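[PROTEIN RECORD]
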Amino acid sequence: MSDLTAVKALVFDVFGTVVDWRTSLITDFMWWGRQRGISADWTALVDGWRGMYMASMDEVRKHPERGYVMLDDLHRRSLDKLVAQFAIKGLTEADLDYLTKGWHRLNPWPDSVAGLTRLKTKFVISPLSNGNVALLTNMAKFAGLPWDLILSAELFEHYKPDPETYLGAARLLCLKPDEVMIVAAHNGDLAAAQKNGLKTAFVARPTEYGPLQKVDFEATGNWDIVAKDFGGIADRLGC
């Protein structure tokens, strides 16, 4: 049993951990496409879009001389490539903006809001996401996520799993790294955070990628908490 008595704040991975990005986007785009009379394989587009996510952030890391690029802009660049690849015709600039901002309109997993609300009674709670500040703020309004503040990779101009994100979150909260616990459905995120001194909690989201899910069905590291949902984390932390 880990000693968690020093923990004062919980920070959360968001895409896949707090919100169900895949189902949200596919449902949104299918409805929108019908309204606009635009036909496309929206499931393939969404899966392809997420498939470009890590590579787009790696490109920012490889070229620091070009400056930091926020996730909204990376999402738009990836979308432009996918629209061409899938030969989707008739999209206006407003349409492309609507699709890009789909990442601002993601629905929470069923346990997310209730679990966060419980955890908020005892801890400072915040996202620690690669999403930019506007994206995370709009998502919180849309999904009813009760954050105390928004911590984003944009604030540190580094994407996870760069150390600057985890250590930057602790610094802005005026806490030591071991006074911050990160909650994620991704073992790699937790491993990077743990390496930088943060406490860790794992929640499995085995349907995040739908039939394409290949990893993160279960905890694979020595995490401080492993729970089936946010309510289980609240139980362990006495909320």
Residues 73 and 210 are 26 Å apart (CA to CA). The chain has a mean pLDDT of 95. The first strand starts at residue 9 and ends at 12. The radius of gyration is 18 Å.
